[in-house]
Amino acid sequence: MKSTSDFLVIGSGIAGLSYALKVAEKGSVAVITKREISETATNLAQGGIASVFSEEDSFDAHTQDTMIAGVHLPDEKIVRMVVESGPQAIRDLIDWGVKFSKNDDNTYDLTREGGHSQRRIFHAKDVTGREIERALVEAVQNHPNITVYENHIAVDLITEAKQTHRRIRPDRCLGAYILDIEKKEVIPFGARITVLATGGAGKVYLYTCNPDVATGDGVAMAYRAGATIANMEFMQFHPTTLFHHQAKSFLISEAVRGEGAILRRRDGTAFMAGYHKLKDLAPRDIVARAIDNEMKVHGDDCVFLDITHRGEAYITDRFPNIYETCLSYGIDMVKEPIPVVPAAHYLCGGIKVDEWGESDIQNLFAIGEVSCTGLHGANRLASNSLLEGVVYGNRAAERSLERHCEQPATFPGIEPWDSGSATDSDEEVVVAHNWDEIRRSMWNYVGIVRSNKRLVRALRRIQMVQEEITDYYWDFNITSDLIELRNITTVAELIVRCALERKESRGLHYTIDHPETDDIHWKQDTTIRKQF
Ligand code: SIN
To answer: Which residues are annotated as catalytic?
Structure first.
């Protein structure tokens, strides 16, 4: 079997779906998603989407806040463009049916988060992502030109160079091989334009507040196809996820601190004043490192987030989801502080793209968390990611439509998938063990505080697992677990290699071997590209 469409979108979060809605007016769109359509990081986003709106705010202030949070590594031109596109992105979402929270006087209720000098976060209580995903999914499902393929996972990109076994520069993307998970069949999906919107890679780490789908598939596939990858050392650890043995790293939104919550030690002492002038509203890298330090110095398993002073009526109305979830684990945030720890949350690096979301492989775009646009630099400012998703969904759509017109009327021929003499594996346990090995090594050696020795140790383990995967990959029929293991291992390697390259500490990359920020040599991206 074979499938073709004008536009192939891999991923169904805010970036992929908003792109699909924009291009669907001009051609057929296939949306590929690994599980159910709304099983995405967007769906779990609590805080909101940042955009200048109030009279007191300005594009200059939002730009400045983003540059400071990103430790002056963001590309200021890109930051300004994204920030200035914010109001239109909010209007697009409202037009697609998103309902943001409002005040009693019918104005939008703007909240605040760490690193923001103004209230500029549009939100839907504490389930903003769920509301956005709901509206986009509804719009996509009602669109006659969009076909959604649930339970389908991308295996690899199809490029001209791979098809013809020739060295072609720049290479051209022709689509992707996609595994239908239920039928266990790999289908070649041909497309004039392919868009990676696969989200992040939190599952590379043992503890993450990302959904299970966050296995870095897009970055790994683009790397294998020869695209340039940048800034992978900048994995953002969210400072506050619920610490409870049954809770799978449930996020406690930064908006809780934005609305006045204070981080405390076990004995009740507030500690953030000792780390930054913005105290609990310091940028995320600083808060996460402070918590890590507090836990190490005091030998504690967690720290505590205290918002009890805001009272029951406010807390239950503003944070209903967080309140109910904490209560289900026996923690009443109205009466007691919430135990929290940092966990892997957001990948600031990714596939390097231009200001239209276009990669250096022709007809291949990357949008949302999978991409590295220049917006986040060394540390993403809270709630800038949903904004980036809509802005680049829109821009990539605009550029894709131009590229689409330039192409021949017929689709290029694509070879069927060749599974060789592979058989079904009788040792699935190998895959499970290797998953665990990668995620534990990354947590232990490539976490919030790094060193050369720890990074090299991690790289050795990753390379061992890679050898096993290569054997396994060719001998056995592929499964989604094996595809994801191969991808997290590739992404782990890229994170470590970028981290080893950056000989300074900046934002989310902190190493005891180079503790200072070195603007003279390192105010630049780290880039990496597969050599063929
Ligand atoms: C949060 O609600 O704290 C997450 C928001 C974000 O990561 O931008």
So the answer is: 284
β-bridge mates for residue 344, sequence order: 208, 237
Q: 282-313 in b/e burial notation, b at 16+ Cβ within 10 A?
A: bbbbbbbbbbbebbeeeebebbbbbbbebeee
**pLDDT tens column, 233-242:** 999 999 999 9
Q: Whose CA is nearest to atom 5 of ligand 1?
A: 47
Token match 């002056």: residue?
Answer: 72
Tokens of 500: 């080893």
Is ligand 1 within 6 A of the CB of residue 38? no
What's residue 475's pLDDT?
80
Q: Can you give the residue ranges of every domain in the chain?
A: 3-43+127-233+348-406, 240-344, 428-517
428-517: CATH number: 1.20.58.100
Peptide bond before 239: cis, by omega within 30 degrees of 0?
no
State how far the Cα of 497 lies from the Cα of 232, in Å rounded to an integer.
Answer: 8
CA dihedral 382, 350, 151, 42 (to 10 degrees): 10
Terminal-residue alpha carbon distance, the chain: 30
Cβ neighbours of 91 (radius 10 Å): 11
Closest CA to 110 of 69, 62, 52, 158: 52
Residue 454: Cβ-neighbour burial (10 angstroms; 0-12, 13-18, 19+): buried
| pLDDT tens digit sequence for 250-284 | 999 999 999 999 999 999 999 999 999 999 999 99
Ligand 1 atom with the shortest distance to the CA of 236:
7
Crossing angle of helices 14-23 and 384-405, in 10° steps, is 30
Mean pLDDT of 137-159: 98
CATH number assigned to the domain covering 240-344 = 3.90.700.10
Ligand 1 pocket test: which of 46, 325, 340, 384 has the largest number of ligand atoms within 8 Å of its C-beta? 46
* Domains 3-43+127-233+348-406 and 428-517 in one fold: no
The whole-angstrom separation of Cα 390 and Cα 94 is 12
- What mean pLDDT, rounded, does the chain reach? 96
Task: Tell me the CA–centroid distance for residue 219 and ligand 1, in Å.
Answer: 22
Average pLDDT over residues 323-345: 98
CATH 1.10.3290.10 is held by the domain 3-43+127-233+348-406? no
By three-state DSSP, how is residue 488 classified? helix
